[in-house]
Amino acid sequence: MQNTVWLACTDRRDLSAAARELLAHALALATPPALVYGKPELEQGGLRISLSHTRGAVACAVSAFPVGVDVEPLGRKVRDWKRLAERYYTPEERSCIDSPEQFLEVWTRKEAYLKRDGRGLSLPLRQINTLSIPGISTRIVNGFVVSLCGEPAEFSLVACRLEQFKKQDGENETTQRGLCYVGRTGPALEDGKRGVERL
After folding, report:
1. pTM of the predicted model, to two decimals?
2. How far apart are CA 6 and CA 122, in angstroms?
3. Which of 58, 68, 78, 136 has the fewest other C-beta atoms within 10 Å?
4. What counts of helices (H) and strands (E) characterise the chain?
5. Is residue 99 scored above 50 in pLDDT?
6. How far is residue 33's CA from residue 6's CA, in Å, rounded to a whole number?
């Protein structure tokens, strides 16, 4: 099975529910999966998933192997990004960033790695050099930075939008939710040290 990341732009307030809804669409489930210890529980054997959400977007990754995904808006204001980089990034990572956008590229790589590993923030961030980990790839899509950590690092990306729409059924009008597909891309290509593909 190829790694697939679903990225949906959304204006929903409950981003956790939106991410689970996106996962249900990705796996063709009738209803979103329940959460167990903050993670979706799946009955399909052998599938590994990861969810991420940020203002304006949700993402889910589906793989046959352990996987982590993170998404952040490219225009996010990061105060003191240089100080944060000094505190949490390796010297090699710091040498590759010159802007808040590049700071976010590295940050999403770290988050994706932590999610794939499963130990979270108990790992020392300053000792994890995401530029030397071969299983991480990053893309910039529709104004969002998306990083995936998995084996292999390549992934297909399905871009869509979670929307609400009104359905007229005789005299009754109901609000329903659904996906509006924007596009699909093939595997990410490594591009320089950071391995960022801009779409």
Report:
1. 0.81
2. 27
3. 78
4. 4, 11
5. yes
6. 16
Question: pLDDT tens digits, residue range 141-196?
Answer: 989 999 999 987 678 888 888 865 444 455 554 444 455 544 444 444 333 334 44
- The range of the structural domain enclosing residue 129 comes to 4-198
Per-residue confidence (pLDDT) for residue 75, from 0 to 100? 86
Contact 143, 181 (CB under 8 A): no
**Per-residue pLDDT for 63 more than 80?**
yes
- DSSP single-letter state for residue 1: -
Q: How many domains does the chain have?
A: 1
User: Cα separation of 94 and 86, whole Å?
Assistant: 7
- Cα-Cα-Cα-Cα dihedral sign, residues 111, 115, 117, 118: positive
Q: The tokens of 35 are what?
A: 């959460």
Bridge partners (DSSP) of residue 126 are: none
